[in-house]
Amino acid sequence: MTAAVSVRGLRYVFGETVAVDGIDLDVAPGEIFGLLGPNGAGKTTTIRAVTTLLPVPRDTVSVFGLDVGRRKMAVRRLIGYVPQLLSADGALTGRENVSLFARLYDVPRRERVARVDEAIAAMGLTEAAQRQASTYSGGMIRRLELAQALVSSPQLLILDEPTIGLDPVARAGVWERITQVRRETGMTVLVTTHYMDEAEHSCDRVALMHRGRIGVVGTPADLIESIGGGSLDDVFRAYAEGDWDDETKGFRNVRQTRRTASRLG
Ligand SMILES: Nc1ncnc2c1ncn2[C@@H]1O[C@H](COP(=O)(O)OP(=O)(O)OP(=O)(O)O)[C@@H](O)[C@H]1O
C-alpha cells in the first residue's frame, strides 16, 4: 500500500540550526498521525517540507506516492493545510472566508456552493456562517480554518498545532470535528501538537520528536505500555530525559530505567 506520507532521511538546516536531523516517517492512508514534541523540536519544519512550502531534495518526501521534490503542484492538490498562524479574515463572514478558499483552490464553480455548505456544516458553523469572523470565539475561528482547508476535499489534511491557545472545551470541540471528518471521509490527518493528552486520545499513531529527531513511533497505547504504564507525557519525559544523541539509549534502556525507578518508588 502506498503511504499517505513517506519521509526518508529528511534534514533541514537554518544557518547554524539543525531543525530536522535526518528523519524517517511513514503515515498510513486514513490514519490520524500525531507529530509530537516541545517547541523547537522540528515539527513545523517537517510538515512545511511535506506541504511543499520548504524546498526538499528529490526522493526524500512523498505524498501518496508523488515526490514532493519533483511534483510540487500535484502534491499541493492533495493537501489541505491549516498553519499555526491565523489565516481567517475577520472582516469577512465565515461563509465568505470559506468561499474565498473554494475559489483559491479552484473548486469547480458548479460544486462551490454545496462544497462550502458541507465544509461549514462539518465544522458545526452553519448558524454562525453569516456572521463576521471577528465575532467568533477562538475555537470557532480554528474550526473555520479547518472548513477552509476542507473545502477542496483534500486527501491529506495537515494541521499545525490546531488547538494551541484554546480553552479545554474549545480544544475538545476541534478534536471532535477532526475525528468526525476522518470517520466520515477516510481522510488522512497529519497533526502536530505539544499537548500529549490530546494526542493520546485522538491520534491512531504518534511520533515523538525532540531536537530534530524522531525517537519513537507507535500507537499511544503501545508506547505507554513500553514504559510500563502511565501517560504519553511520561513516555515523552522518559525519552527526552535520556540523551538522544547517545545511540546506546534505546527503547529497552528507557524501559529498564522506568522499571528501576518504580521499584525504588
Ligand atoms: N525560518 C527559520 N529561520 C531560522 N531558524 C528557524 C526557522 N524556522 C525554524 N527555525 C529553527 O528550527 C528549529 C525547529 O523549529 P520548528 O518551528 O520546526 O519547531 P517546532 O517543533 O514546530 O516548534 P514550535 O511548536 O515552536 O513551532 C528551532 O530551533 C527554530 O528556532
> What is the arithmetic mean of pLDDT?
89
For the record, the count of structural domains works out to: 1
How far apart the termini lie comes to: 46 Å
What structural category do the secondary elements indicate? alpha/beta
Bound molecules: adenosine-5'-triphosphate
Assign the CATH topology.
Rossmann fold
Number of helices: 10
Could you give a short account of the major beta sheet? 6 strands, mixed
Please compute the radius of gyration using only Cα atoms. 19 Å
Just give the CATH class.
Alpha Beta
CATH superfamily: P-loop containing nucleotide triphosphate hydrolases
The CATH level-2 architecture is identified as 3-Layer(aba) Sandwich
**Which bin fits the share of residues in helices?**
40-55%
> What's the number of extended β-strand segments?
10
User: Which ranges are low-confidence, i.e. pLDDT below 50, for 5 or more consecutive residues?
Assistant: 243-265
The order of strands across the largest sheet is: 6-7-8-3-9-10
Return the string of H and E elements. Answer: EEEHEEHEHHHEHEHEEHHH
Strand content: 15-25%
Spatial shape: globular
